Amino acid sequence: FLAFLRGSSCLRVFVVKAVCISPTRFAILYPMKILIIDDDRALGRSLQLHLEREGHTIATAATGNEGLAAFAANPFDLAFVDLKLPDLSGLEILARIRAARPETLAVMITGTQDTKATIEAVRLGAFDYIRKPLDLDAVLVTVEKAAQSLKRPASARVALDSETAGRPHEIVGGDPKIIDMLKQVGLLSQSRIPVLIEGETGTGKELVARALHEATCPGKPFVALNCSAVVATLLESELFGHARGAFTGADTEKVGRLELAADGTIFFDEIGDMAFDLQAKLLRTLQEREFERVGSVKPIPLRARVMAATHRDLEAMVKEGKFREDLFYRLAVSTVRVPPLRERRGDIPQLVNHILARLGPELHKDIQGLEEAALRRLQAYDWPGNVRELENVLTRAAVLERGPALREDTVATAMGRGLNRAARPDEIKTLRDAEKDHVETALYATGWNITQTATLLDISPTTLRKKIADYSLTPPPGTR
Fold first, then answer.
1. CA gap 189, 180 in Å, rounded
2. Beta carbons of 222 and 213 less than 8 angstroms apart
3. CB 201 within 8 A of CB 388
4. Residues 134 and 21 sit within 8 Å (Cβ to Cβ)
5. Helical pair 41-53 and 9-18, crossing angle rounded to 10 deg
6. Model confidence over 179-206: pLDDT tens digits?
7. Strand pairing report for 241-242 and 254-255
8. CB burial class (10 A; 0-12, 13-18, 19+) of residue 122?
9. In terms of C-beta density within 10 A (0-12 exposed, 13-18 middle, 19 or more buried), how is residue 3 classed?
10. How far apart, in whole angstroms, are the C-alpha atoms of residue 238 and residue 226?
C-alpha cells in the first residue's frame, strides 16, 4: 500500500500524519455515503481507506465528468471536490451538485492559493473549504461536522445563492483564521447590510473591504474615506459635499463621497477617529438613507453599502462616551475580525513570496527568494505592525540586499529599526498570551523540532507537547 502511495510528495505528509491517529478517535454519528472527486488517485484512495475505517461508504472519481456520473447514479451525503480537475472546474461541479441535490454537502479541496475561489465556493453553498496537503485530523473533523449537520433539520443550514462573485483583491494566506474570514466574506456578499471590520493596524482591513465589495457589487464604485487623515473641519464637506457659496472659499459645487459611491460601497476607514458631532450627522444619514450637501436643503438618497473599519475598541469608546452607541450598533450589524500576523505565522512564507514577487519589478531588483534562516527570523518576530510592517521590512531588505536572495543579516538589519520600539499600554499581553507567543516563537525558530525547542525552553518534550495542546498551536503546512 505504501509503495502505491509513493507517487505524491503531498500525500506522503498526509500518510505520516494519518498513521498516528486512532481509527476510533471520532465516533460515528451518522454513517454517510461520501464521494471523492480528485485527479490525485493516491490521495483519493488514501482518503477512501481512512473514511471506510470510520464506517462510511466511499466512492472515488478522478475526473469531473466521472464524478458527476457517479453522483447522478447514486445519492451521496457528502462530496469532496478538488478545485482543479483535468476536465471541469471544481466550482462548476459544486454548482451542479448543489442544483441537483441541495441536501448533499460539498467540501472544496485545493492545493493553490485562490481568494476568489474560496469566496465563490462559499457563495455556491460549499460546506467547507480545506487546503492541501490534507491534515487527516481536519478531514475527520469536517466529516464529523457534516454528520452533525445532516442530523439537524435542513432549515438549520444556510442556503447560499449561486450569483457569480466579482474579482476580489487577493488576500494571501491559508491559515484557518483567514479561511474562516473568507467564508464570512462569502456569506456577507449575499446582502448589503453594514459591516464593521475590526483589526489591528496593518492587518489589511481595507483589503478585506475591497474583497467584500468586489464579491457583492463588482464594477461599482468603491469610495474610501480615511476619517483620521482628513482635517475635522473639512470632513463634513468631504463626506456630504457642499453647495456653491456654502462657506467662504466654496466657489464651486462639490460632490461628496457618499454621492460618489452611488450603488457601490462607501468605506469609512478608522471610523473611531470621526469627530463626535459628525457621528450624529452620519447616524441620521444611515437612519434616513438620505443626506444633504452642506449649504443645501435638497435631499440626496444614500444608495451605497456602508462599511467601516477600526483598530480601536469601539465598545470601550462607547462606554467612555467617546463614540455614539446608536451609531456603533448601526455600523456593527455584522463584524469581521482580521487576525493579526502573529496569530497566523504559518502564512508568513506565502506573504513573503507574494510581497517579494511584487517588490522585485518595482525596485528593479532580481529578488529570487530568501535564506531559510532569514525566513525563520521573520516567523519568530511578533509583528506589532502586522503585514504592513512585514512589507516595510522586506522593502528595506530588498533595497539593502546585493545578491539574488535575502540573507539573514540583511533581514536582521532591516528589522532592527522596529525591534526596540517601546510598547504601548494596550500592547501589553497577559502572562498566558506571552507564554503562548514565546513557545510559538521558539517552535518556529527551530522549524517545529520538538526536541530542540524543548532544549531551548529548558523544559521536557512532554511539557512542550502539553503546552502546544493547551494553546492549540498548529505547525505550518508540510511540517513533519
1. 14
2. yes
3. yes
4. no
5. 10
6. 999 999 999 999 999 999 999 999 999 9
7. antiparallel
8. buried
9. exposed
10. 10
Q: Are 389 and 418 in contact (CB under 8 A)?
A: yes
Distance of CA 12 to the CA centre of its chain: 27
* CA-closest candidate to residue 340, choices 204, 432, 444, 203: 203
Which parts of 101-256 fold into alpha helices (H)?
A: 115-124, 136-151, 176-188, 205-216, 232-240
Peptide bond into 133 cis (omega under 30): yes
DSSP single-letter state for residue 84: B
* Alpha carbon distance 59, 41 (integer Å): 12
- List pLDDT tens digits, range 395-410: 988 888 766 788 888 8
Q: How far is CA 344 from CA 124, 153, 363, 399, 476, in A?
A: 27, 35, 28, 26, 9
Q: What is the pLDDT of residue 15?
A: 34
CA atoms of 16 and 24, how far apart (whole Å): 17
Question: What does the pLDDT read at residue 399?
Answer: 84
Q: How far apart are CA 288 and CA 300, in angstroms?
A: 11
* Cβ-Cβ contacts under 8 Å for 462 (sequence gap 6 or more): none
| pLDDT at residue 5 in the model | 35
Q: Helix 232-240 crosses helix 276-288 at what angle (to 10 degrees)?
A: 10
* Distance of alpha carbon 373 from alpha carbon 411, whole angstroms: 10
Quote the CA–CA distance of 82 and 88 in Å, as a whole number: 10
Looking at residue 418, its pLDDT comes to: 42
Element spanning 266, H or E = strand 265-269
pLDDT value at residue 151: 66
Put the strands of the sheet holding 78-82 in their side by side order: 57-61, 33-37, 78-82, 105-110, 128-131
Q: Which residues of the chain have pLDDT under 70?
A: 1-29, 149, 151-169, 232-233, 245-250, 402-403, 417-429, 476-480
Secondary structure E strands in 302-400: 305-310, 334-337, 369-370
Q: What is the pLDDT of residue 428?
A: 66
Around 345, how many Cα atoms within 13 Å sit in the side-chain half-sphere? 27
Q: Which three cell numbers stand for residue 98?
A: 448543489
Partnered with residue 129 across adjacent β-strands are: 108
Q: In the block, which residue shows the cell 434616513?
A: 288
Cβ density class 156-175: b for 16+ within 10 Å, e for less: eeeebeeeebbebeebbbbb
Residue 355 has which C-alpha cell? 510581497
Which position has the grid cell 448589503?
Answer: 192
Judge contact between 302 and 285, C-beta under 8 A. yes
